[in-house]
């Protein structure tokens, strides 16, 4: 196998695929990237057995062939080669060596045979549809922060993608929760998605899809079944296993009749929470919201370091209420609010609070209170 390829192209492609490869592997072949050269094309593929990324780029090929090399080392070599250089990648015979040449630089890497490389067989995909990259990125951005990192509750370690009926008609809805907060975002149901199974897309897959979206104008093809999902983003094909579990019935968690309505300037509120939480304990991060009339007092009391209070003017004409929240969670949600005004719908100090843009929009957030 001999391939001549531009450094910029190869570096970009390796940048996409090498991220999938875990730094520590008990199975040697999983530390490698599969290089396959044929018909003026060079394809690169990496996998961790749950997620597979494949990209094809143009190259001069003569003769064709396939081999696997250590992914992170190959990426680092290409990254450090001079900009604008032509790279020649060559594997000869059965010596198990790959040679990389560019200008006066020459590297040799140990290889493993193509036959050892696992294939994440996707099987038949039952549903397929297309989304604009901007739509898919927004779905991820608005919900990703609420994905649970608690491995014992593995069924919460991803975004639940499913069809739903709402006041706006049929929608494609993304939901994530860690038990303390919930994020939901929906868009009109795309053609081809009707009847699709509800699937839980793993956190790592979600992150890779987000990184692969480089232009908001591109169209992304999504195919899925009950066990796998595939995203085609330009020349990159990402195939992933889905989380094998049942996402909890989140409907009852979303409060529908919270009658205490607080409207607050989003930016002012966000900065005030950030300021007072400076003295909060790393473990608790609790901030207290005291509402009376058109006044909101934020306070933090940390016996180990001190206390802080700040007062801001708000729109609120319900009964006075004192309620506590985790300041980090509150800031995460506030950062997702797009309008100038955030709306918090409260019930009592022990019940979940609903947070939305003033205009409503396609996103909603639920935050569980803390005892303060």
TrEMBL record:
This is Beta sliding clamp. It is found in: Cytoplasm. Belongs to the beta sliding clamp family. InterPro entries: DNA_clamp_sf, DNA_polIII_beta, DNA_polIII_beta_C, DNA_polIII_beta_cen, DNA_polIII_beta_N. One of its GO terms (cellular component) is DNA polymerase III complex. It comes from Pseudorhodoplanes sinuspersici. One of its GO terms (biological process) is DNA strand elongation involved in DNA replication. Forms a ring-shaped head-to-tail homodimer around DNA.
């Amino acid at each position: 196998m001999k391939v001549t390829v531009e450094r910029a192209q190869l570096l970009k492609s390796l940048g996409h695929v090498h991220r999938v490869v875990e730094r520590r592997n008990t199975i040697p072949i999983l530390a490698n990237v599969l290089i396959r050269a044929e018909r003026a094309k060079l394809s690169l593929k990496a996998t961790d057995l749950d997620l597979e990324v494949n990209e094809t780029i143009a190259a001069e090929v003569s003769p064709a062939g396939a081999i696997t090399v250590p992914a992170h080392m190959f990426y680092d070599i290409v990254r450090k080669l001079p900009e604008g250089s032509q790279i020649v990648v060559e594997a000869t015979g059965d010596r198990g060596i790959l040679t990389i040449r560019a200008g006066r630089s020459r590297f040799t890497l140990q290889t493993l045979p193509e036959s050892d490389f696992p294939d994440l067989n996707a099987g038949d995909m039952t549903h397929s549809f297309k989304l604009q990259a901007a739509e898919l990125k927004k779905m991820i951005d608005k919900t990703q922060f609420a994905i649970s990192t608690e491995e014992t509750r593995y069924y919460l370690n991803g975004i639940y993608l499913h069809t739903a009926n709402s006041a706006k008609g049929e929608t494609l809805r993304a939901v994530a929760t860690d038990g303390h907060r919930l994020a939901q975002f929906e868009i009109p149901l795309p053609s081809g998605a009707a009847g699709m199974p509800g699937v839980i897309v793993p956190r790592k897959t979600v992150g890779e899809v987000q990184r692969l979206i480089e232009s908001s104008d591109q169209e992304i093809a999504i195919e899925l079944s009950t066990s796998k999902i595939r995203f085609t983003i330009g020349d990159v094909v990402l195939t992933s296993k889905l989380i094998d579990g049942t996402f909890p019935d989140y409907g009852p968690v979303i409060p529908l009749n919270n009658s205490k309505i607080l409207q607050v300037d989003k930016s002012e509120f966000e900065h005030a929470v950030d300021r007072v939480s400076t003295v909060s304990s790393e473990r608790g991060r609790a901030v207290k919201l005291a509402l009376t009339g058109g006044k909101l007092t934020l306070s933090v009391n940390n016996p180990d370091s001190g206390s802080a209070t700040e007062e801001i003017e708000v729109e609120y004409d319900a009964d006075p209420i004192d309620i506590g929240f985790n300041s980090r969670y509150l800031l995460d949600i506030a950062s997702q609010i797009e309008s100038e005004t955030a709306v918090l719908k409260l019930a009592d100090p022990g019940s979940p609070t609903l947070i939305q843009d003033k205009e409503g929009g396609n996103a909603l957030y639920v935050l569980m209170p803390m005892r303060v």
